[in-house]
Every structure is written in C-alpha cells, then in structure tokens.
Amino acid sequence: MIFLGAILAIAVTMSLALVRALLGPSVYDRVLAVNMFGTKTVLLLSCMAFVAGRSDYLDLALAYALINFIGVLAVLEFFRQRERATETPEGHIRHPKPATAHAHAHADTDPATDAASGASEAAGDSEPGA
Questions:
Q1: CA separation (Å) from 97 to 102, 105, 106?
Q2: What is the C-alpha to C-alpha distance for residues 22 and 33, in angstroms, rounded to an integer?
C-alpha cells in the first residue's frame, strides 16, 4: 500500500517537472527538469517492479537511467558548443543583427556625394591611414 502512495507522489513530481521543462525560463532549467523527469521515471519503474513482483522492470529502469544520463550530457554539450560559437575572441557574446530598415538606410544616400568622395580619394586628397 505504501508503494502505491509512492507511485502517486512520484507521478505528481513528474508532472511538476514537465511544467518546469515547458515553462523554463532558461535552457538549463529545462534540461534540469528533463533530467529530473528521467530520474523520477527510474524511481517509478522501480516501484512498479516491486508492486508487480517483476524484477525485469529493474533492468529497464537501469537501462533508462544510463540513457538519461548520457542524453543529458549530450544536450548540455550541444548547448555549450552553440554558446561558444556565438562568443567573440574577447569573450563577449555576439548577437546576430536583425534585418531592419537600417540596412536600407545606406541606399538613400546621395550618389553625387559618393562620387565626389570617390573622386577626391582617387586624386590623392586624403591621407592613407587618416
């Protein structure tokens, strides 16, 4: 009877872990919630093995625990590599520039001004390195 109560409590905590996995707020909170859900699944399988009197469920629980552990490590490594790819050499995070009207602002420049500045540079009016 006490194991049925434990199964019910585990099911409640699994549902709370699912809520945390869906709501976040960060990626690491979601990964931690999925890891917790996997751990609770192992506990649930173990309790069900005891209640049903089937020891082969314990083999499933052990296999699931190993898959859960390796899976969480793989997901964390993926996010670490993705975060590392967005960093600049100075350690700052590089944010992609959104496509806005700023990209089209340069198209509205006066071609006569651009041609005059190009002609003065071609004539040697500007100093290199200045």
A1: 10, 15, 16
A2: 9
Please state the φ and ψ torsions of residue 93, each to the nearest 5 degrees: -85, 130
Whole-angstrom distance, CA of residue 27 vs CA of residue 87: 17
Q: Token match 């009016």: residue? A: 125
Q: What is the pLDDT of residues 101-123, one digit of tens each?
A: 555 555 555 555 555 555 545 55
Residue 68: which of 84, 85, 47, 44 has the closest Cα?
44
pLDDT for 105 equals: 52
DSSP the chain: -HHHHHHHHHHHHHHHHHHHHHH-SSHHHHHHHHHHHHHHHHHHHHHHHHHHT-THHHHHHHHHHHHHHHHHHHHHHHHHHHHHHTB-TTSPBPPPPP--THHHHGGGS-HHHHHHHHHHHHTT-SPTT-
Global pTM value? 0.63
Angle, nearest 10°, between helix axes 2-23 and 27-52?
160
The helix-helix angle for 56-85 and 27-52 (nearest 10°) equals 180
